[in-house]
Design goal:
Layout: E1 17-19, H1 28-36, E2 41-44, H2 57-75, E3 84-89, H3 97-106, E4 111-115, H4 120-128, E5 132-137, H5 140-148, E6 153-157, H6 170-178, E7 185-188, H7 194-202, E8 207-210, H8 224-232, E9 238-241, E10 249-252, H9 253-258, H10 282-288, H11 305-330
Parallel strand pairs: 1-8, 2-3, 3-4, 4-5, 5-6, 6-7, 7-8
Antiparallel strand pairs: 9-10
Helix pairs in contact: 1-2, 3-4, 7-11
The structure holds flavin mononucleotide.
Flavin mononucleotide binds next to strand 8.
Length: 334
């Protein structure tokens, strides 16, 4: 199927990648570093929390990100920063949603990422300020619903992704969505190398969506032990469980053992237990039980986020060169 051209906000990136929003972990420092390094940076609006009576933190974060990226662009017209994205959790327990939509529209957020619910009014809020809305989905049914409700693009969250992953192989999921959808399609799940990023494009995605690889960085708001655990762990150390949020997610086994639970014998929890209210016990689960995807074998040190982008770019270019060699060998018809 012929593809529609990508929206301007997703074109001209240094590598075809969007850094995914990470609950608790991503804030202005990480987003600014990702955007300056040339890929889309993002954060969940819910990470910006103020105490009662304090100035609105989301407003302060958007001001800082916008101003710092503007300054960077003026100083580096040949190497401008990539645009940033804000993630909205569209779930009935998110009592801040309406307020956060209004703030993001006022700050003209260029890319809106929605999770856990597709609602036309959220897409309309994005469009009202010239932004685009990308919705994350774990199967083809949800993908169709998201586009019917006005999303501009999709994030296919496949098996092996950190946080709330889907159960499907990326090969199956991307193929089913690409059979009818020619718009922006991102692939999420265990993409932590340039090879995986190129593979995402080869199977039909436009861009890769990268999460866990950015947790082990200097700018990430994560416990130093969490970062070290990522360096020391591999795919075998990831367990899938519903226990912590009510829906299936991928977590680091050693963090579960540290919290006094047996990662190989976890109880199941019901989706009704999901709760994004401020002060709820659930963020604690993310604070103590650490999420990560299966791609963490590629993380072997803790350093600046720009270093992760440099590494992935080098690997991506090398993989492209190998693909050119494959094309020379297998690409000619008889
Ligand atoms: C610790 C952690 C927190 C996450 N928090 C969010 C979130 O708040 N909102 C969201 O849409 N996705 C969230 N995700 C999922 C990511 O957006 C993304 O789908 C995933 O990290 C990609 O897989 P990878 O980690 O294997 O790269 C989270 C993932 C992790 C690992």
């Amino acid at each position: 199927m012929a593809r529609s051209p990508l929206p301007a906000a997703l074109r001209g990136l240094r590598i075809p990648a969007v850094a995914s929003p990470l609950f608790i972990v991503s804030g202005p420092d990480l987003v600014i570093a990702q955007c300056k390094a040339g890929i889309v940076g993002s954060f969940p609006a819910l990470n910006a929390r103020e105490k009662d009576g304090e100035p609105v933190m989301l407003e302060a974060w958007l001001k800082r990100i916008t101003e710092e990226l503007d300054r960077h662009n003026q100083a580096n017209p040949d190497r401008p920063a990539a645009p940033f994205a804000v993630n909205q959790i569209v779930h009935r327990s998110n009592a801040r949603l309406e307020r956060d939509l209004e703030i993001c529209a006022r700050w003209k957020v260029p890319i809106w990422i929605t999770s856990l619910g597709a609602r036309p009014e959220v897409n309309e809020a994005a469009h009202s300020c010239g932004g685009i809305a990308l919705h994350d989905v774990i199967n083809n049914t949800f993908a169709r619903k998201a586009i019917d409700k006005g999303a501009d693009g999709l994030i296919a969250v496949a098996a092996g992704a950190g946080g709330h992953a889907g159960p499907q192989s990326p090969f199956a999921l991307v193929r089913e969505i690409r059979a009818w959808f020619d718009g922006p399609l991102l692939l999420s799940g265990a993409i932590a190398t340039g090879e995986a990023l190129l593979a995402a494009q080869v199977i039909g995605a436009d861009l890769g969506y990268i999460g866990s690889a950015f947790i082990a960085t200097d700018e990430a708001n994560a416990d130093p032990d969490y970062k070290r655990m990522l360096v020391e762990s591999g795919a075998e150390d990831i367990v899938t469980s519903t226990l912590f949020t009510g829906i299936s997610g991928n977590y680091l086994k050693p963090s579960i053992a540290r919290a006094g639970l047996d990662p190989d014998n976890l109880a199941h929890a019901d989706p009704s237990s999901m709760n994004f209210r401020e002060g709820s016990a659930k963020p604690k689960a993310w604070k103590e039980i650490w999420g990560a995807g299966q791609g963490i074998g590629a993380i072997d040190s803790i350093g600046p986020a720009a270093g992760v982008v440099d590494r992935i770019e080098t690997e991506y270019r090398a993989a492209l060169a190998r693909t050119a060699a494959l094309a020379a060998e297998y690409g000619k018809g008889e």
